[in-house]
Amino acid sequence: MHAISLAKPRGLDVVAQRARLTGSSLVAPALLLVIAINILPALYGFYLSLHKVFFFGNEGFVGLGNYVELFRDPFAWQAIGRSLLFTFAALAVAVPLALLAAIGIRRLGRWGSVLLTVLLVPWAMSPIVVALLWKWILVPSPGGLVGAAFNAFGLPPQDLLTDPLLAMPTLIIVAVWRNFAFATIILIGGLGQIPRDLYKAAAVDGLGAWESFSKITLPLLAPSLLIVISMLTISYFNEVQLIIGLTGGGPIRQTNTLAYLLYHTGFVELDQGRGNAIAAVMFLINMGLIAIYIRILGKQSGAAA
Amino acid sequence: MKILSRASLLIACLLAGIIALGPILWAASTSLKPTNRIFAVPPEILPQNPTLEHYAKLLAEGVHWAFLNSSAYAVVAVLVALILGATAGYALMRYPVAGKPAVLLVFMGTMAVPGFAVLLPTQMLATSIGLHDTWSILPILYAGHILPFAVWVSRSHFATVPRELEQAAEMDGYSRAEAVWKIVIPGAKPALLAAATFGFLHCWNDYVTGSTMVDSPELRTLQVALIFFQGFHGRDWGSLMAGVIIATIPPVVVFLLFRKFLIGGFADGSVKG
Fold it and tell me: Are the beta carbons of B155 and A27 closer than 8 angstroms?
């Protein structure tokens, strides 16, 4: 600080210095709160991940011990696999659905905005409440909604949430039901920016509906699609409330994603050293995903310019 | 051909609407049925003898206190985040700020990374400074979660209000703070309302923060109270669905009231910044 002010003794005039002081002090409260609530705990969590911490008691420094143990645990690897499966399967369902909805809504005109509002109602709900709601929808009894559907086809009601094969797909459907429409909003915005003349020109050139979709819509929608994909990836990868409410990681760990493993290890087993190691791994994967998407997005906009 | 595609579009939309709202309406219907009709086969779509007994049971269990807690936490957090966020956003746009690139990076980085990963150390820090299980911990944490977004939205939207308008107000004898209040804030109102709506939904819809940061029953959020209720009365679907409906009304009403700003902001990409 001193060196800087000595180097430019007369360069900074009083007015500029005062403006800088005002600006910094206006930013300070928000900055301090964000550092205290988001950054400090992250650093403290990393510190704890290097210690053996159990039931709020720090039993000493163990270096990378928690990480080594974590990566030796086959269940941790299974959880990473489950996270990736959940994330990318949900994406594979949600993105085409959101795109379809966006195209349909734009065609509908005035009624389209009504439909969009309707589709967004589940998104406004709490994930844990959505889980409670779907537990009732899925209740394995002929008096339940899904049970009655099984009944109508002459099948006995299945408990989809305790079936090792069907629990994950069921969870994915509920996750997509809750939030795919949010992606639709952004895609509608993206579609609106594609010049209509391009489609007219394509029609003149004799391009069919599918060709104009794949040659005009998809490439020009790429930036919006990437925003949607990255937002949904991060939201699905970190989803924990639906899993707590619907399956609790079961049956036989089939829905035990990394986010749920963190919740269970840290808050149920109270193995807080290891829980923080899982959090650090999740943080790195989050950062990696964001970096990949920024890279792709950067290339996209570079190519467009 | 044209008529056919129009008709199929309408049918698809109707179907989409039923899939989106059907489960919620089914929960509403269940919440109004007497307990002995809830498992009727085939299911009664509409309650034949509607009753409010499940809502009465929840009230007797004190659900209104949890409802008030959730509302108070969310409202305080949104107000704090908007005030601090707008102040910081304005300064970041109009003033020189020490270490500006680093400050922007802090706000952007914390916006991208979900809060769930730092919940565990947050719980330990809150415990060690005596804030765990107090009235203040949830509003503080929620405000911290939604603040980066509020800063970002304010900063990018204040930029659309011409500086000349502010200066004109100052020439008319207003102080700079008054000029901001009278000119800049109203100019960015849609974006600020979008940020407020988004923030409210984040707070109201949270479960993990609420369930790990407070233990006392009288401090619980509605979501946490519902899960506790489920623990005690696991099969009482009538009351559980009444709880689902009570917990769903506030965020849906807020969303419906402010959907214009929310949808508009995200569709033109401006809320993203």
Answer: no
Q: Residue B89's closest chain A neighbor by CA?
A: A27
Task: From chain B, pick out residues whose CB is under 8 angstroms from the CB of A30.
Answer: 84-85, 87-88, 107, 147, 151
Size of interface A-B (CB pairs under 8 A): 264
Which residues of chain A lie closer than 8 angstroms to B107, CB-CB? 30-31, 34
When CB atoms are compared, the residue of A35, A37, A148 closest to B43 is A148
CATH class belonging to A73-304: mainly alpha
Cis peptide before B139 (omega within 30 of 0): no
DSSP code of A179?
H
**Of residues B80, B113, B221, the one with CA closest to residue A126:** B221
Sorted by sequence, the CB contacts under 8 Å of residue B242 that are 6+ apart come out as B31, B54, B55, B57, B58
What is the ipTM metric for this complex?
0.92
Residue A6 has pLDDT above 60, yes or no: no
Strands (E), chain B: none
- For position B266, what pLDDT does the model report? 65
Q: Cα A20 to the chain's mean position, in Å?
A: 37
- Report residue B33 as tokens: 């049925």
Give the residue from chain A lying closest to B226, CA to CA.
A129
Q: Who's near A170: CB < 8 A, 6+ residues apart?
A: A138, A160, A161, A246
Secondary structure E strands in B148-237: none
DSSP B18-65: HHHHHHHHHHHHHHTS-GGGTT-SSPPSS-SS---HHHHHHHHTTHHH
In whole angstroms, give the CA distance from residue B82 to residue B88. Answer: 10
State residue B267's pLDDT score: 60
Residue A53 backbone dihedrals phi, psi, to 5 degrees: -125, 125
Domains belonging to chain B, first-starting first, are 1-51 (no CATH), 54-267 (1.10.3720.10)
The single-letter code of the amino acid at B244 is V
- Cis omega (within 30 of 0) for bond into A41: no
Query: A51-54 and A57-61: which strand pairing?
Result: antiparallel
Burial A17-50 (b: 16+ CB within 10 A, else e): eeebebbbebbbbbbebbbebbbebbebbbebbb
The CA distance from A46 to A258, in Å, is 17
Inter-axis angle of helices A74-108 and A110-124, nearest 10: 160
- The per-residue pLDDT for range B60-92, each reduced to its tens digit, is 988 999 999 999 999 999 999 999 999 999 999
Give the whole-angstrom CA distance, residue A97 versus residue A120: 13
Distance CA B223, CA B208 (A): 9
* Domain ranges in chain A with CATH number 1.10.3720.10: 73-304
